[in-house]
Inverse folding.
């Protein structure tokens, strides 16, 4: 019979009474109560966690996209740019007197530097007025190609830029030193000039000078502007048009991997031990610095945005939890009457808001990851997301929820059961 | 019918409650009261008489400002807040006028809630809740939401919730206040049955008809308790 149990079990021995057992709230029950609290208003819970979803989603998307973009930069820089040094001819204080600071044997001097694979001098030739690039010696009628730039380049440039010849070949040191009137041109320029085959030994006319085309290339690894130019040997250009005038010469140096900075340090001295100040070597940009710069500019803005989102999310959770606390004053009073301690109430509401934050965080992580993958797919990039970011993002949501729940749950614990049960 | 072997369920000695002002309001004048196991006691009084104050003190929801309150022999003034919470949960079953059922939980879950704060294993919780629901005649409604229950059924769920923890005192605050007279009678019949099975029942009400159900009727007026014509002050009853 129930009656026997009522009489028997729960009463304590005679006074002065022993301390009664404490109220307990098992973790599993706490979680169950919190989940029930969230699920009893599903639509509101979804809306509440939306702020966290957006905040965490933005967080993931920003970190993911900057990481992905940085990885793209890395792969671009790793192979080619990291092995490219440009030496600029500044002329120093004698700039007016010395139009070309690179010595004639610049290619060979530079090639002797440890770590250099190939090096060559080039400049853009300024043609006298009225002289253009044409496919025939006749006046500039049909075959004239206006504005085709002419680049003077030593044979080392062809080695360093590594053009891919579809026909013919580049020139070498022999052409360089023997004033050969030869030229190599990009395939699109060749098409414009009407040059389809080299069997007929076609020539291009620059002003009145004929240059035999000995090579047509369709791709270069460095100096993509060569693709649209007519490239002639340095010595020939110097003899025909004189030293560079508007733009001073430069040297393109391709180095072994990792040697670029060292080569840049030594270049000026190796080329002009007498006047190293005439030359200035530009090492490749540090990819790490560049990546940081990219991450810095846009990333910081969006990180700020995602933090704003998170704050809004936190305020949303705090607000809703506070409203829920006010709505559930009766429930809180009842729980206190059933033996809950004030801290049990705190835990319950804190767990509810933390769970809302966690759910928002997980949803946001998924959303952000989807955005990163989607954008990467669209741009044919490799999506890069640090595993630590993925793990920490739901934790970020959890922390947001916890933080947001502090005040409401404190308020809940302060509710006096007397007041609550009177309703 | 005193059980000499056991301490009284409720033992008040010179207990009084004064709300600090300004101006201070005396809600309960110092009084003594003894309620033994198995008694059915009604406390009746008009609103503003100090009923709620007495309920709060008896239910360990409020602290008296003077005197001593022994619940099942435990001096409640000497225990800390967390122990008061435990005492409340284990020794007192509350029944409220407005039921205070959680609207999104089934009757069964509402009853189980009373066992959540004492680490009763889940299975045992389910079994005990089902048993108590059957006891109050609601076995067939165990999985209904409160919103789908009638007023009388809701109050039965609330009684079941109060009983499931096997308290030594069933503390009912206007248990029929929100019910029509017929339903109210059935709830009071239920309380009668529980009393007949040995439960200590204390009903606080303003309704003299409800109060008449008790073996003892204690009147409260202006914070003064009296039983019959005896004023319960200064001397044990």
């Amino acid at each position: 019979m129930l009656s026997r149990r009522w009489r028997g079990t729960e009463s304590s021995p005679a006074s002065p009474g022993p301390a009664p057992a404490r109220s307990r709230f098992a973790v599993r029950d706490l979680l169950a109560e919190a989940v029930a609290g969230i699920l009893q208003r599903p639509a509101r819970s979804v809306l509440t966690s939306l702020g966290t979803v957006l905040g965490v989603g933005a967080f993931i998307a920003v970190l993911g996209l900057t990481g992905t973009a940085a990885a793209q930069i890395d792969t671009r820089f790793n192979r080619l740019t990291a092995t490219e040094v440009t030496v600029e001819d500044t002329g120093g204080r004698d700039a007016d007197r010395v139009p070309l600071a690179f010595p004639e044997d610049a290619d060979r001097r530079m090639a002797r530097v440890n770590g250099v694979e190939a090096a060559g001098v080039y400049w853009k030739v300024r043609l006298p007025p009225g002289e253009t690039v044409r496919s025939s010696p006749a006046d500039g009628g049909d075959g004239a190609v206006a504005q085709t730039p002419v680049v003077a380049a030593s044979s080392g440039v062809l080695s360093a830029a590594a053009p891919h010849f579809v026909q013919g070949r580049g020139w070498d040191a022999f052409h360089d030193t023997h004033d050969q009137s030869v030229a190599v041109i990009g395939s699109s320029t060749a098409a414009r000039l009407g040059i389809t085959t080299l069997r007929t030994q076609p020539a291009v006319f620059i002003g009145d000078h004929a240059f035999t085309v000995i090579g047509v290339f369709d791709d270069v690894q460095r100096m993509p502007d060569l693709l649209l130019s007519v490239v002639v040997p340095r010595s020939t250009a110097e003899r025909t048009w004189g030293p560079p005038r508007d733009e001073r010469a430069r040297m393109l140096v391709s180095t072994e991997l990792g040697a670029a900075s060292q080569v840049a340090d030594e270049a000026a001295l190796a080329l002009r031990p007498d006047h190293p100040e005439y030359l200035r070597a530009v090492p490749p940009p540090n990819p790490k610095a560049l990546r940081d710069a990219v991450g810095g500019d846009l990333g910081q803005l969006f990180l700020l945005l995602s933090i704003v989102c998170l704050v809004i999310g936190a305020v949303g959770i705090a607000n809703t939890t506070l409203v829920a606390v006010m709505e559930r004053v009766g429930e809180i009073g009842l729980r206190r009457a059933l033996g809950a301690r004030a801290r049990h109430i705190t835990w319950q509401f804190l767990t509810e808001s933390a769970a809302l934050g966690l759910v928002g965080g997980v949803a946001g992580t998924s959303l952000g990851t989807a955005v990163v993958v989607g954008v990467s797919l669209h741009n044919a990039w490799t999506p890069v997301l640090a595993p630590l970011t993925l793990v920490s993002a739901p934790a970020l949501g959890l922390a947001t929820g916890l933080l947001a729940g502090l005040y409401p749950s404190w308020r809940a614990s302060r509710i006096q059961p007397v007041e609550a049960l009177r309703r | 019918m005193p059980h000499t072997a056991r301490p009284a369920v409720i033992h008040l000695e010179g207990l009084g409650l004064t709300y600090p002002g300004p101006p201070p309001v005396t809600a309960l004048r110092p009084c003594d009261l003894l309620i033994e196991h198995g008694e059915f006691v009604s406390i009746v009084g008009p609103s503003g008489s100090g009923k709620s104050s007495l309920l709060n003190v008896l239910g360990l929801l409020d602290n008296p400002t003077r005197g001593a309150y022994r619940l099942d022999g435990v001096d409640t003034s000497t225990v800390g807040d967390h122990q008061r919470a435990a005492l409340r949960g284990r020794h007192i079953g509350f029944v409220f006028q407005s039921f205070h059922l959680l609207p999104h939980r089934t009757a069964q879950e509402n009853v189980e809630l009373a066992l959540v704060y004492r680490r009763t294993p889940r299975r045992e919780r389910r079994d005990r809740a089902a048993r108590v629901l059957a006891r109050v005649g609601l076995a067939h409604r165990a999985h209904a939401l409160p919103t789908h229950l009638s007023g009388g059924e809701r109050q039965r769920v609330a009684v079941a919730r109060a009983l499931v923890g096997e308290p030594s005192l069933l503390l009912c605050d206007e248990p029929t206040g929100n019910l029509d007279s017929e339903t109210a009678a059935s709830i009071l019949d239920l309380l009668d049955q529980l009393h007949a099975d040995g439960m200590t029942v204390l009903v606080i009400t303003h309704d003299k008809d409800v109060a008449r159900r008790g073996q003892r009727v204690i009147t409260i007026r202006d914070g003064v308790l009296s039983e019959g014509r005896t004023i319960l002050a200064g001397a044990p009853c």
Observations:
- Helices of chain B lie at 51-58, 81-91, 107-116, 122-135, 151-164, 181-196, 208-211.
- The CA atoms of residues 82 and 203 of chain B lie 26 Å apart.
- Chain B touches chain A through 53 residues (CB under 8 Å).
- Chain B has a mean pLDDT of 88.
